[in-house]
């Protein structure tokens, strides 16, 4: 099962997106474990993450996260700001899972 972690500055707005992604999982018939956390807490979850999605507000950290975590096998991507703003959980889930 793919483990997806979303991070933003505080972890609040991404929690709403996680709910939408979980609804999309049911619709698409896929399984994943999804969580939203503040950027400052990611170290606690790095060993339990396959895909790391950054909220647009922390996109400036993408280079650092890619350099640090992609060599460890963690896919790192920035959530499209329009998809984020529209809370398009299905589109973000598909992007995370590569479908």
UniProtKB/TrEMBL annotation:
PROSITE patterns: PTS_EIIB_TYPE_3
A single BP term in Gene Ontology: phosphoenolpyruvate-dependent sugar phosphotransferase system
Phosphocysteine: residues carrying this PTM: 8
PTS EIIB type-3 domain segment(s): 1-99
Keywords carried by this UniProt record: Kinase, Phosphoprotein, Phosphotransferase system, Sugar transport, Transferase, Transport
Domain of life: Bacteria
GO molecular function: kinase activity; protein-N(PI)-phosphohistidine-sugar phosphotransferase activity
Protein name: PTS system cellobiose-specific IIB component
Coiled coil: none
């Amino acid at each position: 099962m793919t483990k997806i972690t979303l991070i933003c500055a505080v972890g609040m707005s991404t929690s709403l997106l996680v709910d939408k992604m979980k609804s999309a999982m049911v619709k698409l018939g896929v399984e994943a474990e999804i969580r939203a956390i503040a950027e400052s807490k990611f170290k606690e979850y790095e060993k339990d993450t396959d895909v790391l999605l950054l909220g647009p507000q922390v996109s400036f950290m993408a280079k650092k996260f890619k350099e640090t975590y992609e060599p460890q096998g963690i896919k790192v991507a920035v959530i499209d700001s329009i998809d984020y703003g529209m809370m398009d959980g299905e589109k973000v889930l598909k992007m995370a899972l590569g479908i």
